[in-house]
Amino acid sequence: MKVYRISRKKYIRDLSGEGARRFGGRWNKRGVPVIYTSSQESLAALEVLANTPASSLPDDLCAITLILPEAIKIMQIKSPNLPEGWNQYPSPNYLREAGSEWLISRKSLAMRVPSALIHSEFNILLNPFHKEMSQVKTGEVRSFRFDQRILS
């Protein structure tokens, strides 16, 4: 399975989850590392735009493809099973609690969660401390730029 991530060049190969650990996110509490990826590169781009003001977008963005082992167990959370308001911003605390609990338990390498931006698409959370993390392969890394029409 391929997943996609967009980040600054100096962090693109960093699979420690350090950025998410430092700041927290929709599915993790501050202090709990996770790697946020998306099932599609276009969703990864949209997630960047949703979380970074256009005026603050760095000019050294890169996209990376990560290849997950075929036999891994992927936990799934489906949007019909989530309480109303799960996709609000700021995100509700119960999502951070549930995601952090999953990360700490190390039950699986990956968890598939619905995107708060496009409910029919999915983000794939990776647990950097799971024993199968060493089997994740890095694929192509390339420069990534947003079309100026999106940024104006």
Summarize the structure.
This protein is of the alpha+beta class and 152 residues long. It is built from 4 helices and 7 strands, in the order βαβαββαβββα.
Molecular structure report:
This protein has one domain (2-144). It has helices at 18-23, 41-51, 93-105, 148-151, and strands at residues 2-8, 35-38, 61-67, 74-76, 110-114, 122-126, 137-143. The radius of gyration is 15 Å and the shape is globular. The protein is α+β, with helices and mostly antiparallel strands.
Helices and strands, with pairings:
Elements: E1 2-8, H1 18-23, E2 35-38, H2 41-51, E3 61-67, E4 74-76, H3 93-105, E5 110-114, E6 122-126, E7 137-143, H4 148-151
Parallel strand pairs: 4-5
Antiparallel strand pairs: 1-3, 2-6, 3-7, 5-6
Task: Throw out a few tags for this protein.
three-stranded antiparallel sheet, 25% strand, alpha+beta, 152 residues, 4 helices, globular, four-stranded mixed sheet
